[in-house]
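Problem: given the chain below (143 residues), write out its structure.
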Amino acid sequence: MAPTLFKLRPLPGNGTGLLDQAAFHVHISKQELSNLGLDKGGVIRLSTSRGFVGLALASLDYQTGTGNRPLAKVTDALREKYQLDLKDQVEIQRIDEPKCQLTSITVSFQSSLETPSKFPSDVLELSTRAALGMFTLLYCHFL
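Solution.
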């Protein structure tokens, strides 16, 4: 059975940065989630003709049409980080959840320009949680 190739579309209103919780979500239709054996929040592997490009989390897109071509809506941050172009056809595969759990991690800032005092504590907490969640996903997958 040939892999399903998804056509990329920009996620509307996606002013998310790399530390935003939704930056590494790929939005696909309910039918495509089902076809891939995925639930919302499932870990997916993204590949193009260049090979493996990265991991992401599956999200349900209520507005994706049911046309002939499967569509995947992605953020600008994800496209930039994984060097994807809207012309790329992306294969999405379900992967099993990582089988490990980190017990601790230390976060430090590299320079005084990045000190936490510039940001409200709730923004720091949300950004740190999102970054650590993605780190755990990647770290455990490649052990």
